[in-house]
Amino acid sequence: MSTSTAPTKAPAEQIAAPTAPPRKVRGRGERSRAASLASHGVLTLASLVAVFPVAWLVYLSLGPDKNDYLHPGRIWSKMTFDNYAFVLQDTNFFDWLKSSLIVSLGTTVIGVLVAATTATRSRMRFPGYRKLMWVLLVTQMFPIAVLIVPMYQILSKLQLIDNYFGLILVYCSTAVPYCAWLLKGYFDTIPFEIDEAGRVDGLTPFGTFFRLILPLARPGLAVAGFYSFITAFGEVAFASTFMLSDTKYTFAVGLQSFVSEHDAQRNLMAATAVLVAIPVSAFFYLVQKNLVTGLTAGGTKG
Asked: Where is this region: Disordered (predicted)?
């Protein structure tokens, strides 16, 4: 006897339902497209804001007339390099360059060396060290106008008025305190075991400092050196007070010769300012690698 079996129906829950495509989940720290576009837009705008003054200065330096800045659109049709030729040939430009380099490099070398030897005392605890560092910090609170008169009297008694070394000492008095605090924070990141290793090898404290600590602190020294160089290169108040000879003016003071009571040769000022930026840019190029490392890394990172 044959029995027939009817086909059974699969239950509804066993029927595979169509699955939706998986949603893309952003990883941790991954930004959305809108956030990425917004950040790129902000960075582009910031770059334009930073570049515009430099581009505007170069543009004005190509105008032949001192009042071209009032009608900038006219410069396009009459661009010329006559301003640069006049500055290089008919002014004391190279004397200003020599004075600026002597003062800036002298301040950088002496100031960084003194600041480094002062800051490394944080590795040799002794009574009064903390008070000494606070005294250095307090000296930064006095405005330049208050310091000019006593400094002038001191330099006058030492016969250092209108002298490169006198101006270097003045600049070191302002650069050393800041650089000492800057380098102290960097020296503190270098392991103290290095000092112990130097003593085991028979090095004196100064030998350990010059042969072991300073090479590791090269990025921090680059930051301090760049600060000292830029500060001395662009300072006006001290240089215009203590340097009396035209041939010993720095660039910052020499620029004032283009401005008188009734006249201002802005085209020549712009050309000189562009030429002034060349040594600073070259110095920045030389130290940029260590400068970035010193601002972002610790003393134990190579």
From this structure: 1-31
